[in-house]
Amino acid sequence: MITSLNVVFPEKCGKIRGFFNRLRGDKVCVEIKRARGVSVKQLTYICRREKVNLNKIDRAIGNQRTRLLCCEEMTFPNNSGYKRFYSPFFSARLCTNMALFTLSKFDAPERLTVGIYDPDAQCTDLVSFVLKYTGNACIITDNEDVFYDELNTIAEETGACAVVTHHREQLSNCDLVIAPFEIEENLPVRNDAVILTNGRPKENIKGFVYFRYCFKMPNGFALLRPEGLSEEYFCSALYTLGSQYELGSIVPDLCRNDTEAQTVKSLCSYLARFA
Q: What is the pTM of this model?
């Protein structure tokens, strides 16, 4: 069971009406939706007072309190036992799928230098897919041994190889950088490089950085999405909590940042300058 929480504050009204609203007390509405083998419990808390009383929803939420779907702005007291659900793994798949599909549609991917930025070695399987398109690949990681094991297997099977290093400076040679997880440091990328990543980087970095992904939700799942939650966030919950792993094959229609968006076609058009 996936559980979401939405808090609604009634519109401001006169003193008399506001007084009677407070007398009525808060209200919790529960709706359960099911589709494609997934159940989503949607709680709407109508807060007629100044503060949300978690005791009113605790029983309805039960053991889901540590992985509760809610908007990004919602916070909980540190000692409440409540925690907003977050997982980076679905968004990481969107990032890598966008990158790989772009390489597959590019006329001469072997002419591109592709960087994989994965400090914690969480996406070692990405290397074999990238090496299908280009032999000019550079892996930046703090866990080099993990990638060496992966590359030894790849070399035995296909003969392909890649550079593995912890030196971030190597990224300055890359035309396209794939960073499946959030970038937490300033990276020495070129001004004209394309960077596909997961979530807004914590540091301002050069290049054309895209960190949001737009896609069409499969039929059925869209009907389950609670109001106020983005498609990407909700699908992350379906993927992680609901074991809907087929969502991991989605290729986004667009990648974007705060000011512009790119399709696979437009990315290919831009990257052609490096080929």
A: 0.89
